[in-house]
Every structure is written in C-alpha cells, then in structure tokens.
Design a protein that fits this description.
2 domains, 264 residues, mainly alpha, single chain, binds zinc ion
C-alpha cells in the first residue's frame, strides 16, 4: 500500500512538470528556466504554492498575487499522471518496464494537450521517443505484443516501421483525396514511437481504438456545432487514447478474439 502512495505522489510531482512542458514546449520556452510563474501576472509561484493538486485546492483555484482563476486543467493533469503511474504499477508490477511505461504515458499526456492547444505534436518528444522506444521494446519490456519475440529488437523495429508506414500512407492518400493536409507529420512520428513500444499489432490496435474514439467524438462535435468544416479536431489525443487502451487491455482483447475464432 505504501508503495502505491509513494508512486502516486511521484506521479503528481511529475504531472506538475508535465504542465510546465505543455505550456512551454509549443511556445519555444526553456522548460527549466525560469521557475514556474502565473501565466497571467507572471509572478513567480512560491514553492509552497506549487504543491500538486493540494495548492490548487488551498488557493481555491486562484493565483495568490493577482487572483486570476487558474485552469482546472493543471490539477487534472497532475492527478491523471498520478493515476496512470499507480495503474501501471497495479497492472504490470515493478521493473524497468514500470519506468518505461510511466515515461510513455506521461509523454502521451504532453502530446495530447499540446495537440489540443496548438494542433502540433512536438518533435522534441516523438523523435527521441522512437530510438528510446526501440531500445526499451527490445531489451526491457515484457510487452503485450513483443513478448513472444525471438529477437526483441526485430519486433520493436518492425513496430516503429509499421507505425511510420501506416500513417505515412494515410497522410499521402489523405492529401491526395482531400487536397489538403489531413494527417500531419507529427502523427506519423508519434505512431513510430508507439509502434516501437507496442509492436506492429499494437499499431493496429492503437489505430483502431483511436479511430473509433475519434469517430464518436467527431459525430458529437458535428451535432453540437453544426458545421464540421469549421471544427478542426486534432488526431493525436485519440491516438494517445488508443495507445493507452492497447497498453492496458490489448493483450486481453487479442486473446479473447483468438479464443472466439478458435470456436468456429
Ligand atoms: Zn497571477
């Protein structure tokens, strides 16, 4: 039990850092200097006002200096990251993979919120993520879809290549059909990273669940806003959701389907 509390608090603290990354990376600011400050009045935030989730509650969701409302998103991201870390611990236990999956889910959080805000998926996360993912996939992960590998690196590399190729093909066919860029280069690099960590089956699962979620949300957005042409929906958050589902349930879903097909 104690280990879960420690891991949860660690997740909150890293979550606080993710908020900094989400704000600063797309604005091309340093993620280390200067220290955190209020986005509205630029007053540096005191360390005791910067405790994840808790400070937000104690300050009633407002900046101590200028009283501007602080977005609920900040404590939400901290909480979400903490929740992800204990879920990983619960599902996969302790090992190198705990660290790799935590890093993976944290990077998905950053990708999701930057993509929602700016419609970009920053290279600074996905590009190092590809070789790191291949190395981790090959040597450290008891991964859902990499486990049966004779040579882990082959499967990890194949996964990255599948993610790249599939989304490259979607991107070029999308721009040929719609005469405009439907899928960005960021999605391609993101899926190469996802593939490195989850193998080629993981790429297809992620794409399937991501598209399913995207379709459902897309229909709701169209219904509520009327004109679908004006609403730009980034795809990165859905792919992140797909990757999350694949990581936690991919193996179970696959085994279920294999059983199902064996029956007939
Ligand atoms: Zn302020």
């Amino acid at each position: 039990m104690a280990v879960y509390i420690v891991v949860f608090i660690f997740g909150l603290v890293i979550g606080s850092f993710l908020n900094v990354c989400i704000y600063r990376i797309p604005r091309k600011l340093s993620i280390t200097i200067p220290s955190s400050r209020c986005p509205s009045c630029k007053t540096p935030i005191k360390p005791w006002d910067n405790i994840p989730v808790l400070s937000y509650l104690l300050l009633g969701g407002r900046c101590r200096s200028c009283n501007t409302k602080i977005s609920l998103r900040y404590p939400f991201i901290e909480f979400l990251n903490g929740l992800f870390y204990i879920s990983i611990l619960w599902k996969f236990g302790i090992g190198w993979h705990t660290l790799i999956y935590s890093l993976f889910l944290s990077s998905l959080i950053v990708i999701t919120f930057i993509d929602l805000d700016f419609q970009i998926i920053p290279d600074i996360i996905t590009l190092p993520g590809i070789p790191l993912g291949i190395l981790a996939g090959a040597f450290l992960l008891p991964d859902p879809f990499l486990r049966s590998s004779i040579l882990g690196i082959k499967k990890s590399f194949l996964g990255a290549f599948t993610g790249f190729l599939l989304f490259y093909l979607i991107a070029i066919s999308g721009s040929a059909i719609f005469k405009k860029e439907a899928m960005g280069g960021g999605d391609i690099k993101m899926m190469a990273m996802v593939g490195a960590l989850s193998g080629w089956k993981g790429v297809f699962f992620t794409t399937f669940f991501g598209s399913l979620a995207g379709t459902i949300i897309g229909i709701f957005t169209m219904l509520s806003k009327g004109n679908p042409k004006d609403t730009k929906i980034p795809f990165g958050p859905f792919l992140a959701l797909g990757a999350l589902i694949t990581l936690f349930f991919g193996q179970e879903i696959l085994s279920y389907y294999i059983l199902l097909f064996q029956r007939y």
